[in-house]
Task: structure prediction
Amino acid sequence: MRCNECNVDLGESYHICPLCGAKAADEPAHLAGVEEAPYPDVTKSVEQLWDPDRPGKAVFRVTAVLAAALAVFGGPFTCGFLAPALLLISALYYFFSALREPGRLLHAGLSSLLTLLLSAALLIVVLVRHVAAWPTLLLCVFAGAFFAVLCVEYPERMRAQLAAVLHH
Amino acid sequence: MKNFDASSCKNCAWLPLDNAGHLYAGAHLKNWSRTFRVAAVLDEDVKPDLLQQALDDLSQRAPSYFVRLRDGLFWSYLERTDEHAVVKEEDNLPYRPIPLTGNMQPNFRVLYCKKRVALEIFHAVCDGSAAFHFLVSLLTRYYELQGVTISDFTNALSCADTPTAEECGDAYRKHSDAEVPLRNPKKPDTYFRPEPTIPRYANVIHGVMRVEDVRRAAANYEVTVTEYLAAVLMFCYLNTADEPVTSPLRVSIPIDLRRHFDSQSTRNFAYMFDVSFDPKGRTDVEFTEICAALAGQVQEKSDPAILRHEISANVKTQANPLLRAVPYPIKKLVLRQNYKKSQLAFTTFLSNYGVLTAPPEVLPHIRRAEFVLGDTPYQPFNVACVSVNDLLTLSVGASHPDRTKQQFIFRFLASEGIDVRVESNFFE
Result:
């Protein structure tokens, strides 16, 4: 097939020229021996370009809204306890998702480390005489133990991932 | 699992990005990543099971491709992934952006459709040359699995070998010179007109020509094939512009640095330079004038000393201790702006891969090759070409349905006495 408007050869199955839209003429190709390589017909396909947001993101958004609401209505003590608690929840979430996606092990480690540091700081500075101190202390101990387990059980993976994240 | 080890990268868990990779990694948007496509049309329908097997076999030999982008505290990096099931039947538009989050898959996909095998890959992983090298290696393994004995692996990776640090390392850093002073880049005056785009739309038109015809046409104007095609593009812009062009037309051309420096890198190792022509508002510019202005520009700008200076300046900027200490989210904003600036500094892009080489037992099975640059949010129109077995395929991609420029380019080439065969992903 050929397009006489554009003076070019077309694929054997072409009815119109993709350049100008003119009707293809049933004439022999000037460039002999070239086979047609068709593309799929995409008009029927559904575009699924990007995966929907991961459940982790949705969880993060919901807990962020929840934390903001508690900070407003529950006061600084509730919020002070909530922050490390949420961090620990995320550490556990990352740990279980790391079983499927090893790259997340580091997130679990960092979250537990942050929990440890934040809850320890809260204990010392603000909450030592408040009722929330006890669960915070519990969080602190649990996070420390969790972080230690991660470092002992997966030392090479933790080291490699830490090196990747911190390389500069 | 180890972190990056200069002596062997076979088992490394992650790779730092190279100089160009940082730019592409920083530039990606929520719904867009810099993705390009290389493809080969074979002499028979593709066998998907064998293709997947070939890809699995290649994963240990070419670990630097089986990676996905991850963000670090100071820089992003490429993390190895063991997920290899990325061979799929093509059922969508070409060069869709590679999703960078939400899955474990490497930042590339291998698509097949009848006789065509296509590799679509995120640019932070590798450049066009490395992508073609990977595609040829994949096809070589594919034919090996069908019982073909490969006698010479010069142009492909052999699964019997092990990856080297040279292949997986940062070639920019290796070939840069620490003594080069930092540059103070100025934005050159450039003709640039933003074009309307349709998100995720890809209109590709391939023009297949005999290499000899194109070489002869270029020789008539005493220019190289790359300069000739750049001149055709500039002539096209001049003749399709709504108003007289008063600023210089600049066509950005990547140069494969492996051809100028001794490098076996399977990652990014290219440098973008531009050739320019200033029509000064004239509407009666002849094609011969453009060719005369471009003659020798490619040769002049691909001088190894100049290239070393340019890549050294880029590497030195990246190595700045102050810059290195800045957290990545902030760097990302700067990288995105830099990428946008680099895109707006050119009228359009042209990439000429040159001649695709493959082992002698594989080459006869490749009927033709295709190279599509893919769009960017700022440059919806792009041109690339590659030749194999005496057939050159010029692929014009656009993220809008307007075909004025494509029509001009192929009609002009036909008027130059070149036999052109046109095929498109949208046809009736």
Summary: The helical segments of chain A are 55-98, 105-125, 133-153, 155-166. The mean pLDDT of chain A is 76. Chain A has two domains: 1-33, 55-166.
